[in-house]
Amino acid sequence: MTAPHPRIVCVPDSFKGSVTAAEAASALARGAQQAFPESDVVELPFADGGEGTLEALLAAWGTEAEVVRVVDAIGRPAAALFGRSPNGQTAVIEAAQANGLPQVSDADLLPLRADSYGVGMIAARVLDEVDEILLCIGGSASTDGGTGLLRALGARFLDSAGKEVEAGGHGLADITEIDTSGLHPRAQQVRWRIAVDVDNPLTGPRGAAAVFGPQKGATAEDIAVLDAGLTQLASVLSTHVEVSELAGSASAERLCARDGFGAAGGIPVTLATLLDAETLPGAQLVAEAVGLAETLARADLVLTGEGSLDSQSLAGKVVDAVLRCTPQGVPVIAVAGTVKLTPAECRRAGLAAAFSIAPGAAQLEALLQNTVPLIEDTAAHVCAVAAIGLRPTDSI
What we know:
Distance between the termini: 15 Å
Order of helices and strands: EHEHEEEHHEHEEEHHHHEHHEHEHEHH
Mean pLDDT: 89
Number of strands: 13
Helix content: 25-40%
Radius of gyration: 22 Å
Largest sheet: 6 strands, mixed
Low-confidence stretches: 391-396
Strand content: 15-25%
Structural class: alpha/beta
Strand order of the largest sheet: 3-4-5-6-9-10
């Protein structure tokens, strides 16, 4: 017997390069309602802490983005969006709004000069008005260890002569002292939580410079400069630990090796040591912020998805978070641009099934141009099959 009014929750990530998470959620919902015209469909756009997280959170909260004047990663005037929670006490900052690669795609990449100063300008705008900052840090063009962000809040990074070092990654190796006497008075009073979407350490073969430097324009020589600079920054930070979480265990080696500190060019290392920032997997942080577990608690069927479903999807990304928060026995089905997992891998992960939106042999350009209707059509097929065995829960 098919459930006449099932509760279906649509909780996808964005399909990067084609549709936002909100657009994907709406497309899934429309497809679900073709199979279940009277179903209770919930749209919950989701993200893993990288680009698109601000939009997903605002869509889930029903609040509007605000605009602030900043500079981009290479110092040019720009505009950035930020948001607030419904009660106004939590600010959401997506770092890529100010120091993202897309914002500097029209210029030559400057891996040694690019910095995160614009991100700090957003934070300075809201520090006097909120109790908490959720900082989402994916897609950055800079590798400055977060020094630019802290400079925008009043910190100074000095060389052995007491002069401020050059901005960006190039000046990191010259830092011998950090002066926080001019730091914004609220910077150490608000709660900072950083959503990271990678677990890379600060330095080394898997570090910020080695892994992400090339996409920011860094040559092999640049990577060596940046990695040495981040190592020096960690060394100086280890003598300036002012917070309880890292105190007593923040040697330079530990700071360099800590999981997640290599995200967004090393932004977490400076904020964690100087501002007591907490780093969390982005998907976990977003799940808590939007009440994902509570929304999924009464679901009969869950539809999730993203552009490419692969092994990384099951390691702290959106699909993994959805699976972790869905009650046992509730089927979770993924709809994706491409599916690179075998049926056995899907089952082991907890997915009931996974479907690609590609109707057959297709060019990528054609798929990108028709992503929304393809998601909708695929969801309709998925739900038609699910209707065969779907049962209502006691809560319906």
